[in-house]
Amino acid sequence: MHEDGRIDAVTYDSLSAQVAPHLPLLAALRETRNVTRAAELLGVPQPTVSRRLAALADALGAPLTVPDGRGIRLTRAAELLSEAAERGLAALDTGVRLAREEVSPESGHVVLGFLHLLGRSLVPSLLRGHRARHPGVRFTLVQGSRQDMVDRLTGGELDLALVAPLPDVPALACAGLVDEEILLSVPAGHRLAGRREVRVAELAEEEFVLLEQGYGVRTLTDELCAAAGFTPRIAFEGQESDTVRGLVAAGLGVALLPRFGPGSPAGVAEVPLAPPPYRTIGLVWRAEEPMTPAVAGFLDHVLAAARG
Protein backbone atom coordinates (compact mmCIF):
# COMPACT_ATOMS: atom_id res chain seq x y z
CA MET A 1 0.00 0.00 0.00
CA HIS A 2 1.22 3.51 -0.77
CA GLU A 3 1.50 6.27 1.83
CA ASP A 4 -1.56 7.98 0.34
CA GLY A 5 -3.65 4.85 0.87
CA ARG A 6 -3.62 3.59 -2.70
CA ILE A 7 -3.28 -0.18 -3.10
CA ASP A 8 -1.14 -1.64 -5.87
CA ALA A 9 -2.91 -3.75 -8.50
CA VAL A 10 -0.51 -6.57 -7.66
CA THR A 11 -1.90 -6.54 -4.12
CA TYR A 12 -5.44 -6.95 -5.45
CA ASP A 13 -4.26 -9.73 -7.75
CA SER A 14 -2.61 -11.54 -4.86
CA LEU A 15 -5.70 -11.20 -2.69
CA SER A 16 -7.96 -12.40 -5.50
CA ALA A 17 -5.76 -15.45 -5.95
CA GLN A 18 -6.15 -16.27 -2.26
CA VAL A 19 -9.91 -15.74 -2.27
CA ALA A 20 -10.72 -17.59 -5.50
CA PRO A 21 -10.36 -21.18 -4.14
CA HIS A 22 -12.79 -20.30 -1.34
CA LEU A 23 -15.66 -18.96 -3.46
CA PRO A 24 -17.86 -21.99 -2.63
CA LEU A 25 -17.26 -21.39 1.10
CA LEU A 26 -18.30 -17.74 0.86
CA ALA A 27 -21.39 -18.65 -1.12
CA ALA A 28 -22.31 -21.38 1.39
CA LEU A 29 -21.94 -18.97 4.32
CA ARG A 30 -24.14 -16.43 2.59
CA GLU A 31 -26.80 -19.11 2.06
CA THR A 32 -26.69 -20.78 5.50
CA ARG A 33 -25.48 -18.04 7.88
CA ASN A 34 -24.06 -20.89 9.95
CA VAL A 35 -20.53 -22.36 9.97
CA THR A 36 -21.73 -25.89 10.80
CA ARG A 37 -24.34 -25.97 8.05
CA ALA A 38 -21.89 -24.44 5.61
CA ALA A 39 -19.41 -27.22 6.43
CA GLU A 40 -22.12 -29.84 5.90
CA LEU A 41 -23.10 -28.25 2.59
CA LEU A 42 -19.50 -28.35 1.41
CA GLY A 43 -18.85 -31.82 2.83
CA VAL A 44 -15.86 -30.76 4.92
CA PRO A 45 -15.24 -30.77 8.71
CA GLN A 46 -16.31 -27.65 10.62
CA PRO A 47 -12.75 -26.97 11.88
CA THR A 48 -11.61 -26.82 8.25
CA VAL A 49 -14.20 -24.15 7.49
CA SER A 50 -13.16 -22.18 10.57
CA ARG A 51 -9.48 -22.31 9.57
CA ARG A 52 -10.28 -21.17 6.03
CA LEU A 53 -12.36 -18.30 7.34
CA ALA A 54 -9.54 -17.23 9.64
CA ALA A 55 -7.04 -17.39 6.77
CA LEU A 56 -9.33 -15.32 4.53
CA ALA A 57 -9.88 -12.75 7.25
CA ASP A 58 -6.14 -12.49 7.79
CA ALA A 59 -5.53 -12.02 4.06
CA LEU A 60 -8.28 -9.38 3.82
CA GLY A 61 -7.19 -7.63 6.98
CA ALA A 62 -10.69 -7.63 8.47
CA PRO A 63 -13.08 -10.17 10.03
CA LEU A 64 -15.60 -11.88 7.77
CA THR A 65 -18.10 -12.97 10.42
CA VAL A 66 -19.39 -11.82 13.78
CA PRO A 67 -21.49 -13.87 16.26
CA ASP A 68 -25.24 -13.41 15.91
CA GLY A 69 -27.21 -15.45 18.43
CA ARG A 70 -26.71 -19.14 17.66
CA GLY A 71 -25.40 -18.37 14.20
CA ILE A 72 -23.18 -15.81 12.54
CA ARG A 73 -23.64 -12.61 10.64
CA LEU A 74 -21.47 -11.71 7.69
CA THR A 75 -19.61 -8.43 7.91
CA ARG A 76 -20.10 -5.90 5.15
CA ALA A 77 -16.80 -6.94 3.61
CA ALA A 78 -17.88 -10.59 3.69
CA GLU A 79 -21.26 -9.70 2.13
CA LEU A 80 -19.48 -8.03 -0.77
CA LEU A 81 -17.17 -11.00 -1.23
CA SER A 82 -19.97 -13.57 -0.96
CA GLU A 83 -22.13 -11.71 -3.49
CA ALA A 84 -19.18 -11.69 -5.87
CA ALA A 85 -18.62 -15.39 -5.08
CA GLU A 86 -22.17 -16.28 -6.12
CA ARG A 87 -21.83 -14.33 -9.35
CA GLY A 88 -18.44 -15.89 -10.01
CA LEU A 89 -19.68 -19.43 -9.36
CA ALA A 90 -22.67 -18.86 -11.64
CA ALA A 91 -20.35 -17.64 -14.41
CA LEU A 92 -18.06 -20.60 -13.81
CA ASP A 93 -20.99 -23.02 -14.00
CA THR A 94 -21.98 -21.49 -17.33
CA GLY A 95 -18.40 -21.73 -18.58
CA VAL A 96 -18.13 -25.37 -17.52
CA ARG A 97 -21.40 -26.20 -19.27
CA LEU A 98 -20.30 -24.44 -22.46
CA ALA A 99 -16.89 -26.13 -22.32
CA ARG A 100 -18.50 -29.55 -21.89
CA GLU A 101 -20.83 -28.87 -24.80
CA GLU A 102 -17.88 -27.66 -26.88
CA VAL A 103 -15.95 -30.90 -26.50
CA SER A 104 -18.84 -33.35 -26.36
CA PRO A 105 -18.97 -35.69 -29.37
CA GLU A 106 -22.75 -35.19 -29.46
CA SER A 107 -23.03 -31.45 -28.90
CA GLY A 108 -19.61 -30.08 -29.72
CA HIS A 109 -18.47 -27.45 -32.18
CA VAL A 110 -16.46 -27.90 -35.38
CA VAL A 111 -14.97 -25.00 -37.37
CA LEU A 112 -14.58 -26.28 -40.94
CA GLY A 113 -12.83 -24.38 -43.70
CA PHE A 114 -13.14 -25.23 -47.39
CA LEU A 115 -12.71 -23.90 -50.90
CA HIS A 116 -15.63 -22.12 -52.55
CA LEU A 117 -15.77 -24.82 -55.23
CA LEU A 118 -16.36 -27.53 -52.63
CA GLY A 119 -19.50 -25.88 -51.29
CA ARG A 120 -21.51 -27.04 -54.29
CA SER A 121 -21.78 -30.74 -53.42
CA LEU A 122 -18.89 -32.26 -51.40
CA VAL A 123 -19.31 -30.26 -48.19
CA PRO A 124 -23.13 -30.50 -48.09
CA SER A 125 -22.90 -34.26 -48.65
CA LEU A 126 -20.38 -34.74 -45.82
CA LEU A 127 -22.38 -32.56 -43.43
CA ARG A 128 -25.65 -34.33 -44.23
CA GLY A 129 -24.15 -37.74 -43.51
CA HIS A 130 -22.58 -36.65 -40.24
CA ARG A 131 -25.63 -34.74 -39.04
CA ALA A 132 -27.82 -37.81 -39.53
CA ARG A 133 -25.78 -39.57 -36.81
CA HIS A 134 -24.81 -36.57 -34.65
CA PRO A 135 -27.58 -33.96 -34.94
CA GLY A 136 -26.35 -31.99 -31.91
CA VAL A 137 -22.93 -31.10 -33.32
CA ARG A 138 -22.65 -27.44 -34.41
CA PHE A 139 -20.60 -26.30 -37.40
CA THR A 140 -19.08 -22.96 -38.31
CA LEU A 141 -18.28 -22.92 -42.03
CA VAL A 142 -15.51 -20.73 -43.42
CA GLN A 143 -14.77 -20.36 -47.15
CA GLY A 144 -11.77 -18.91 -48.90
CA SER A 145 -8.76 -19.60 -51.06
CA ARG A 146 -6.48 -22.56 -50.49
CA GLN A 147 -3.75 -20.37 -49.01
CA ASP A 148 -6.25 -18.61 -46.76
CA MET A 149 -7.54 -21.94 -45.46
CA VAL A 150 -4.01 -23.25 -44.83
CA ASP A 151 -3.02 -20.05 -43.02
CA ARG A 152 -6.14 -20.07 -40.84
CA LEU A 153 -5.73 -23.73 -40.01
CA THR A 154 -2.08 -23.27 -39.07
CA GLY A 155 -3.03 -20.25 -36.97
CA GLY A 156 -5.65 -22.19 -35.02
CA GLU A 157 -8.74 -20.45 -36.45
CA LEU A 158 -9.99 -23.66 -38.08
CA ASP A 159 -10.28 -27.20 -36.75
CA LEU A 160 -10.23 -28.86 -40.17
CA ALA A 161 -9.96 -27.73 -43.78
CA LEU A 162 -10.90 -29.22 -47.14
CA VAL A 163 -8.43 -28.00 -49.75
CA ALA A 164 -6.80 -28.88 -53.04
CA PRO A 165 -4.03 -29.53 -53.74
CA LEU A 166 -2.81 -30.86 -50.41
CA PRO A 167 -0.28 -28.58 -48.68
CA ASP A 168 3.26 -29.67 -47.91
CA VAL A 169 3.49 -28.12 -44.45
CA PRO A 170 5.27 -30.06 -41.67
CA ALA A 171 2.84 -28.88 -38.99
CA LEU A 172 -0.18 -30.21 -40.90
CA ALA A 173 -1.45 -33.73 -41.51
CA CYS A 174 -3.38 -34.54 -44.67
CA ALA A 175 -5.59 -37.26 -46.08
CA GLY A 176 -6.53 -37.38 -49.76
CA LEU A 177 -10.24 -37.91 -50.37
CA VAL A 178 -10.86 -37.75 -54.12
CA ASP A 179 -9.01 -36.94 -57.34
CA GLU A 180 -10.85 -34.37 -59.46
CA GLU A 181 -10.22 -33.86 -63.17
CA ILE A 182 -9.47 -30.35 -64.46
CA LEU A 183 -11.17 -29.41 -67.73
CA LEU A 184 -10.88 -26.58 -70.22
CA SER A 185 -13.85 -24.19 -70.01
CA VAL A 186 -14.49 -22.15 -73.18
CA PRO A 187 -17.42 -20.07 -74.48
CA ALA A 188 -20.06 -22.25 -76.16
CA GLY A 189 -19.19 -20.81 -79.60
CA HIS A 190 -15.43 -21.04 -79.18
CA ARG A 191 -13.29 -22.73 -81.85
CA LEU A 192 -12.29 -25.45 -79.34
CA ALA A 193 -15.79 -26.07 -77.98
CA GLY A 194 -16.45 -29.15 -80.11
CA ARG A 195 -13.08 -30.84 -79.68
CA ARG A 196 -12.77 -34.24 -78.00
CA GLU A 197 -9.64 -33.07 -76.20
CA VAL A 198 -7.20 -30.19 -76.20
CA ARG A 199 -3.51 -29.95 -75.34
CA VAL A 200 -2.57 -27.13 -72.97
CA ALA A 201 0.04 -25.90 -75.46
CA GLU A 202 -2.80 -25.06 -77.88
CA LEU A 203 -3.97 -22.36 -75.43
CA ALA A 204 -0.83 -20.23 -75.64
CA GLU A 205 -2.57 -17.48 -77.63
CA GLU A 206 -5.80 -17.52 -75.63
CA GLU A 207 -6.78 -14.97 -73.01
CA PHE A 208 -7.42 -16.54 -69.61
CA VAL A 209 -9.93 -15.84 -66.87
CA LEU A 210 -8.21 -16.95 -63.68
CA LEU A 211 -8.79 -17.22 -59.99
CA GLU A 212 -6.53 -14.99 -57.94
CA GLN A 213 -3.14 -16.05 -56.60
CA GLY A 214 -3.53 -18.26 -53.54
CA TYR A 215 -6.27 -20.43 -55.05
CA GLY A 216 -5.29 -24.02 -55.78
CA VAL A 217 -6.75 -24.03 -59.30
CA ARG A 218 -4.76 -20.89 -60.10
CA THR A 219 -1.54 -22.57 -58.99
CA LEU A 220 -2.36 -25.64 -61.08
CA THR A 221 -3.18 -23.48 -64.12
CA ASP A 222 0.12 -21.62 -63.85
CA GLU A 223 2.02 -24.91 -63.51
CA LEU A 224 0.29 -26.53 -66.51
CA CYS A 225 0.93 -23.50 -68.70
CA ALA A 226 4.57 -23.31 -67.60
CA ALA A 227 5.02 -27.00 -68.40
CA ALA A 228 3.57 -26.29 -71.87
CA GLY A 229 6.10 -23.50 -72.41
CA PHE A 230 4.07 -20.30 -71.93
CA THR A 231 2.70 -17.87 -69.37
CA PRO A 232 -1.09 -17.38 -69.52
CA ARG A 233 -2.31 -14.06 -70.85
CA ILE A 234 -4.60 -12.80 -68.10
CA ALA A 235 -7.80 -11.02 -69.10
CA PHE A 236 -9.56 -11.14 -65.71
CA GLU A 237 -8.94 -12.49 -62.21
CA GLY A 238 -11.66 -13.42 -59.73
CA GLN A 239 -12.29 -15.04 -56.36
CA GLU A 240 -15.08 -17.51 -57.19
CA SER A 241 -15.36 -20.18 -59.85
CA ASP A 242 -18.93 -19.19 -60.71
CA THR A 243 -17.72 -15.68 -61.54
CA VAL A 244 -14.92 -17.12 -63.66
CA ARG A 245 -17.41 -19.32 -65.55
CA GLY A 246 -19.72 -16.35 -66.06
CA LEU A 247 -16.90 -14.37 -67.65
CA VAL A 248 -16.04 -17.36 -69.86
CA ALA A 249 -19.69 -17.64 -70.92
CA ALA A 250 -19.59 -13.94 -71.85
CA GLY A 251 -16.72 -14.67 -74.26
CA LEU A 252 -14.07 -12.88 -72.20
CA GLY A 253 -11.56 -15.72 -72.05
CA VAL A 254 -10.96 -19.39 -71.27
CA ALA A 255 -10.31 -21.09 -67.95
CA LEU A 256 -9.09 -24.36 -66.45
CA LEU A 257 -11.61 -25.50 -63.83
CA PRO A 258 -12.99 -28.66 -62.23
CA ARG A 259 -16.03 -30.15 -63.89
CA PHE A 260 -19.23 -28.20 -63.24
CA GLY A 261 -21.93 -30.30 -61.72
CA PRO A 262 -24.51 -31.46 -61.53
CA GLY A 263 -25.54 -30.46 -65.04
CA SER A 264 -23.69 -28.23 -67.48
CA PRO A 265 -22.85 -24.54 -67.07
CA ALA A 266 -24.92 -22.22 -69.27
CA GLY A 267 -22.98 -20.80 -72.19
CA VAL A 268 -19.82 -22.79 -71.39
CA ALA A 269 -18.38 -25.87 -73.06
CA GLU A 270 -16.17 -28.17 -71.00
CA VAL A 271 -13.43 -29.91 -72.99
CA PRO A 272 -11.08 -32.60 -71.65
CA LEU A 273 -7.37 -31.83 -71.64
CA ALA A 274 -4.71 -34.20 -72.97
CA PRO A 275 -3.17 -35.63 -70.91
CA PRO A 276 -5.89 -35.13 -68.28
CA PRO A 277 -4.68 -33.22 -65.19
CA TYR A 278 -6.12 -33.96 -61.75
CA ARG A 279 -6.08 -32.29 -58.39
CA THR A 280 -6.39 -34.13 -55.08
CA ILE A 281 -9.02 -32.83 -52.69
CA GLY A 282 -8.17 -33.68 -49.11
CA LEU A 283 -8.81 -33.03 -45.45
CA VAL A 284 -6.12 -31.21 -43.48
CA TRP A 285 -5.61 -30.76 -39.73
CA ARG A 286 -2.90 -29.73 -37.28
CA ALA A 287 -0.70 -32.76 -36.77
CA GLU A 288 0.52 -32.36 -33.20
CA GLU A 289 -2.55 -30.95 -31.44
CA PRO A 290 -5.20 -33.02 -29.64
CA MET A 291 -8.71 -32.78 -31.07
CA THR A 292 -11.98 -32.42 -29.25
CA PRO A 293 -14.25 -35.48 -29.60
CA ALA A 294 -16.59 -33.56 -31.92
CA VAL A 295 -13.76 -32.63 -34.31
CA ALA A 296 -12.26 -36.13 -34.19
CA GLY A 297 -15.70 -37.60 -34.86
CA PHE A 298 -16.19 -35.50 -37.99
CA LEU A 299 -12.67 -36.31 -39.19
CA ASP A 300 -13.41 -40.03 -38.82
CA HIS A 301 -16.69 -39.57 -40.69
CA VAL A 302 -14.97 -37.82 -43.61
CA LEU A 303 -12.24 -40.46 -43.88
CA ALA A 304 -14.80 -43.29 -43.71
CA ALA A 305 -16.87 -41.62 -46.44
CA ALA A 306 -13.76 -41.37 -48.63
CA ARG A 307 -13.07 -45.09 -48.17
CA GLY A 308 -16.60 -45.78 -49.39
Automatic annotation (TrEMBL):
Sorted keywords for this record are:
DNA-binding, Transcription, Transcription regulation
* GO cellular component assignments: protein-DNA complex
All copies of the HTH lysR-type domain together span 22-75
Q: Which Pfam families match?
A: HTH_1 (PF00126), LysR_substrate (PF03466)
* UniProt entry tagged with the keyword Transcription: yes
Q: Does the keyword Cell division apply?
A: no
Q: Where would you find the membrane-spanning parts of this chain?
A: none
Q: Which GO terms describe its molecular function?
A: DNA binding; DNA-binding transcription factor activity
**Which SUPFAM superfamilies does its entry note?**
Periplasmic binding protein-like II, Winged helix' DNA-binding domain
User: What family does the Swiss-Prot or TrEMBL record give for this protein?
Assistant: Belongs to the LysR transcriptional regulatory family.
This protein's name: DNA-binding transcriptional regulator, LysR family
From which organism does this entry originate? Amycolatopsis tolypomycina
